[in-house]
Automatic annotation (TrEMBL):
Enzyme Commission number(s): 5.1.3.13
Matching SUPFAM superfamilies: RmlC-like cupins
Biological pathway: Carbohydrate biosynthesis; dTDP-L-rhamnose biosynthesis
Entry keyword Isomerase: yes
Protein known as: dTDP-4-dehydrorhamnose 3,5-epimerase
Region (Disordered): 166-192
Function: Catalyzes the epimerization of the C3' and C5'positions of dTDP-6-deoxy-D-xylo-4-hexulose, forming dTDP-6-deoxy-L-lyxo-4-hexulose.
Keyword Isomerase (UniProt): yes
Family: Belongs to the dTDP-4-dehydrorhamnose 3,5-epimerase family.
Gene from which the chain derives: rfbC
UniProt organism field: Rhizobium aouanii
A single MF term (Gene Ontology): dTDP-4-dehydrorhamnose 3,5-epimerase activity
Subunit structure: Homodimer.
Length: 192
C-alpha cells in the first residue's frame, strides 16, 4: 500500500495496490496488522456507509468528543467526493487549518483521520457512496460539529455555497471560534 503523509500532521492518505486483468481488479483495501504498523495502532469497531444522491451535498464538519472520540478511515465506493478535515487540536501549529483529498472508486484512495479533527465532504458526482471505519461507536450525546462554511476556516468547496445542500442540523453548527476545546495537541490525546 502506498502512504502519503499530508501537510497536517496525523492525516494520512493510503492507496491500496490493485491487481487487474481483463475481468477487472482485486485489491486488499484494509489489513489490520499493516495499518497498525504503518499508520496508527487503533482498533476499528464499526463500518459506516452513506449515500448522497445529489451533486453539491455537503455533510459535516463532524466529530465526537471523548470518551467517544472517533478516528475514521474514509473511502468512496461510488461517485466522487471532496473529503475535508479541519484540525481542532488546541495548541496545534495547524489548528483551524483544513485540507482536502478527492476520493473516488477509480483511485481507491482512502483517508485516515485521527481523533482531534472535524471531518466532512462534498459530493462532486451524484449518487456518491462513502464507506468509513470508525474507532468508537456513534454516541448522540458526544456528537459535535463546526460549520462547514465558517469564514475563519475558509474551506474552498467545489461549488458556490448557495448551490450546496446540507442538513438542517449542519446548518446550525457553531463556528470554530465558538467551540470549546475538546482536544489537545500537546498530548496527542483527547482531553478528559
Amino acid at each position: 500500500m502506498r502512504i502519503e503523509t499530508a501537510a497536517i500532521e496525523g492525516i494520512v492518505a493510503i492507496t491500496p495496490p490493485r491487481f487487474g486483468d481483463h475481468r477487472g481488479y482485486f485489491s486488499e483495501v484494509f489489513k489490520d496488522a499493516w495499518f497498525r504498523e504503518n499508520v496508527a495502532d487503533v482498533t476499528f469497531i464499526q463500518d459506516n456507509e452513506s449515500l448522497s444522491a445529489q451533486i453539491g451535498t455537503v455533510r459535516g464538519l463532524h466529530f465526537q468528543i471523548p470518551p467517544f472520540a472517533q478516528g475514521k478511515l474514509v473511502r468512496c465506493l461510488a461517485g466522487r467526493i471532496m473529503d475535508v478535515v479541519v484540525d481542532i487540536r488546541e495548541g496545534s501549529p495547524s489548528f483551524g487549518k483544513w485540507l482536502s483529498q478527492e476520493l473516488s472508486p477509480e483511485t481507491g484512495k482512502q483517508l485516515w483521520i485521527p481523533a482531534g479533527f472535524a471531518h466532512g465532504f462534498a459530493t462532486i458526482e451524484p449518487n456518491s457512496v462513502i464507506s468509513y471505519k470508525v474507532t468508537a461507536p456513534y454516541s448522540p450525546q458526544h456528537d459535535r460539529g463546526i460549520a462547514w462554511n465558517d469564514p475563519m476556516i475558509g474551506i474552498r468547496w467545489p461549488f458556490d455555497e448557495r448551490d450546496m445542500v446540507s442538513s438542517d442540523k449542519d446548518k446550525t453548527l457553531p463556528r470554530l471560534a465558538d467551540l470549546p476545546g475538546h482536544f489537545s495537541y500537546s498530548t496527542q490525546q483527547p482531553k478528559d
